Every structure is written in structure tokens, then in C-alpha cells.
Amino acid sequence: MIHVARLGFVLILLCFCAIPARSSKSQPSDEAYVTLLYGDEFLLGVRVLGKSIRDTGSTKDMADGWIVELISLLANPNQVRPARFWGVYTKLKIFNMTNYKKVVYLDADTIVVKSIEDLFKCGKFCANLKHSERLNSGVMVVEPSEAVFKDMMTKVTTLPSYTGGDQGFLNSYYDGFASAHVFNPNLPEDVLKSRPVPEMERLSTLYNADVGLYMLANKVLIKRTASSE
Ligand SMILES: *[C@@H]1O[C@H](CO)[C@@H](O)[C@H](O)[C@H]1NC(C)=O
């Protein structure tokens, strides 16, 4: 019965739209910062995250704030999983946000401490390698694609998830992620054009650091206020 009640929770996918500096406000944005809020536990976190993006996004024309989009739950197919992971598969819907060319997804327990606009230069899929050679789904850059999303949906119930959540699924889906090359936002245009866009790239550690590392290095780009998965 608890599960039925939970389906009634509001699932919200929030887009914080960043309009590229060169375009005027009247043009629709094709890049967005996105986070996922299910239930109300992380509402404050999401507001802080939004404020932190605004505070660092000085080179961009910013929209007023989060654009709230109500979306339906993508049920977690795993029987064995932590109870709090009931809604996490919904995160996969960022791959279906095809009205955007590029989406930077940030978990609601992160804050941005420095401009991360470079992330929008990532090709198809970028994430960090953490947890002994596994990708972390707390910070990801995604090029939304109907084909990729549809393919994922055909595998949602069959691919194993070591966490019982979206992160485990994505580690199965992006098999071999540990050997992906590191994303370099400063590659010259001609190099970018002369090579096929990699299916996946790794982000440097500083794009998704824990609070402890932030204190030590004092230069990370995103810090996590709590570790989730
Ligand atoms: C994916 O996006 C399309 C187009 O916006 C929409 O019609 C469809 O319902 C979405 N699929 C899911 C599972 O959310």
C-alpha cells in the first residue's frame, strides 16, 4: 500500500535554463541545467543549487530561475533496493528532454561553486568516475536523444543495477565507462570536427567533488553536500 501512496508524490523535473551569452533573451534556450525533485525532502537544496548556479553564471543571460516541469514517475524495476530509491529511475528522463540540445544534470544535493558552463561542450554523455571505477550519476552532461532514451527504456527491466537505482543501471548501460577518455573542454574546433563524437567521456574529478575535497583543494566546481548513492 505504501507503494501506491508514493505514486501520488509529485515528481518534478526542474530546468534552470541557461541562455548562451551570444543569444538574446527572446530566443529559446537550447541548453539547460536540470535537477530532479521527488517528494519535498530536497526542496531547499534545489533552491540553494539554483541560487549557486545564478551566482556563478555571470557570463550568461539567465532566466529568472527554475522552470518547473511536472513529470510522471519512471518506476524503479528493482525489487531489492534502498527504500529511498523509489523515484530515482525518473532521472533517466533527462535523456528524453529533446527540446534541449544539451542538458547539465545536477543532483539536488550539489551546489555549484564556480562557473561550469564548459560542461555544455561535452559531446554525447559525460560523467565522473567514482566509487572504484564506476560512473556517478550525480553530475552528468547529456545530449538528449529519442533513440538513446527508447533504447534505454527497452533495457530498463533487464540490465542489472548494482545500486538498485539509476546509477547502477547507467553503469550497465554505459559499459566500459571506466576506460572512456577524459573530457577536454579546450580542444580546438578543428580537432573536434575531425573526430567522431565519443559515446561517453569522463569528467575531471573536480567537476564532482565531495565537501572534504573541496575544503582541501578549495577549487572544485561542484561540491556535494551529502553523498547519496
Ligand atoms: C519522451 O518525450 C516525448 C516527446 O516529448 C513524449 O511524448 C514522451 O511521453 C516521453 N516519454 C516518457 C516515457 O516520458
TrEMBL record:
Keywords: Glycosyltransferase, Manganese, Signal, Transferase
Leader sequence segment: 1-23
SUPFAM superfamilies found in the cross-reference section: Nucleotide-diphospho-sugar transferases
InterPro entries for this protein: Glyco_trans_8 (IPR002495), GNT1/Glycosyltrans_8 (IPR050587), Nucleotide-diphossugar_trans (IPR029044)
EC number: 2.4.1.-
Molecular function in Gene Ontology: glycosyltransferase activity
PANTHER family the record matches: GLYCOGENIN SUBFAMILY MEMBER
Assigned protein family: Belongs to the glycosyltransferase 8 family.
Full protein name: Hexosyltransferase
Organism: Escallonia herrerae
